[in-house]
Design brief:
Order of helices and strands: EHHHEEEHEHEEH
CATH architecture: 3-Layer(aba) Sandwich
Shape: globular
Length: about 180
């Protein structure tokens, strides 16, 4: 299956909402806000418009109506003490996990982060999201923290939250050292 990646635009609002509705609650716990709420998507679009978030969508080129099969966001606070850090958020349709959609979205986010001059990237996820952890680690992210019982699902179940970090300069130096 083939896909294309492009910027998330206001006209994509309903298609992204439909994509998010297909995801299990557990897939959304790391976000801090429930994307299934329309006001959260509106806030996301507002933040894109204000320049605080760069966001991408992956569209399935083989499906009817080019459905959204993934999203990625690079969130930053250019006015904060950590203006050099960007938080990466990634969501991929369960049917497309392991098919390269997440990797392609992350590589596109890396290009944006480089263009923004960011010195560090972070990502949050529950530690039991093995596929996500493996993907991020394969691209140079390393575990930095584990916050116990940090998020709760609607049923009240607490989940740990792992924080992974990527230092582009360190990873580039390792690649040079090993001839990658």
């Amino acid at each position: 299956m083939s896909h294309t990646i492009r910027r998330f635009e206001p006209a994509d609002r309903e298609r992204v909402a439909a994509f998010v509705a297909t995801l299990d609650e557990h897939d959304l716990l790391f976000l801090g806000r429930d994307l299934r709420h329309p006001r959260v998507i509106e806030a996301w679009l507002d933040a894109i418009g204000e320049g605080w978030i760069d966001s991408l969508i992956a569209e399935d080129l083989d499906g009817d109506g080019k459905p959204v099969v993934g999203t990625a966001a690079l969130v930053r606070d250019p006015l904060g003490w950590s203006a050099h850090v960007g938080e990466v958020r990634l969501l991929v349709s369960p049917e497309r996990r392991g098919a390269g959609v997440g990797r392609d979205l992350l590589e596109a986010v890396f290009a944006i982060a480089h263009g923004r001059g960011l010195a560090k990237l972070t990502a949050r996820m529950t530690p039991d999201q093995n596929g996500s952890v493996a993907l991020f680690e394969s691209l140079g992210f390393r575990a930095e923290a584990l916050l116990r019982d940090q998020v709760r699902g609607r049923d009240g179940t607490a989940h740990d939250l792992a924080i992974l970090a990527h230092d582009p300069a360190r990873v580039a130096a390792q690649h040079r050292a090993f001839g990658i």
